[in-house]
What does this fold into?
Amino acid sequence: MIKKFKTIPQEFRQFFKYCLVGISGTLIDLISLYIFVEYVGIAIIPAAVLSFLLAVTNNFTFNKKWTFKSKSRNIKKLYIKFLIVSTVGLGLTIAFMYVFVNILEIWYMLAKVFTSIVVLTWNFLGNKTWTFKLKLESSSENNDFKYDLSIVVPAYNEENRIKSTLLIIDDYINSKKINAEIIVVDDGSKDNTTKVVEKYKNKIKNLKVIRYEKNQGKGFAVKTGVEASKGKYVLFADADNSTPIEEYEKLQRALMENNAEISIGSRYLKGSNVKIKQPKHRIFISRVGNFLIQAFLIDNIKDTQCGFKLFTSKAAKDIFKFQKVKRFAFDMELLVIAQNLDHKIIEVPVSWFNSAESRVRPIRDGLRSLKDLVYIKLNLWSGRYSND
It folds into this structure.
């Protein structure tokens, strides 16, 4: 029976659930009104208002969690919008009943049926598309992708390393017969990074380069690449190939086995293989940073900063549209947004090689990341990472 129900189109399932919730709300409205008037001794008008609010609260709670499965945590704003839709629905009920009974002279019970259908439809569509901001299903919306995988490589002054990385990635995707595109985003390099990439466009299939003049930061570069991606899955990887491209298989397998939308490489899980370690001062700063991130922002993720992350296309587009941080702290912001939107994240142990030519400046970038941590927390509290 449950399996058959799941084969019904989503719009009809949601509407059926909405009707069931509406029935429960009506019962609460009637029963609480009776109790308020007969047992508590409240006058009819204030009792009707209280019972109406109880019914709205019941309907809001179940429709958010069950009918529409909203991921937003901005409860206050959603509730006010839900209350507005319900109040307009109440006004429509009064107006339609007056027209049907007094002007069209329809039997009041039949008029009530017609009115209920109209108002229920209004409430359903209003709450679905405005309160919870869910799109109506469209036959034109499909899951056709030009590529199976989009690989986004942010690059800044990488003329000496980008060739090797691109050739390694190309060899891998060819050996595995992956239909992939490689998007190099030149983050305002002052060297010949773009020229080096352009030289290999005829040798490497589906290689693209995006360049802008002013350096914006790694986070901005990754976002630019994700927005241009056309793959079913989106992977971003560092230009120095510090996490070998072969580790993609682990992330993809974890994504599928756990029915997740995001899998991220980690250097700090059991099974991780850090073959070339960072200097001790950088390890210390990194660990302190991760402690603060876990304490104030993100639950149950040991390594937010590893530059090797895989997303489903839908999750990537959902998350990156909220991204505000342009530089190194963008990784933790993405994961905060993902958790706020209830996307499932899997952390996967990977191999990792530290690069002696790393662009990270431990003290300066560490202080900037600390400032960004506060900024991200404020954004989270203010609802800037929500769909409403």
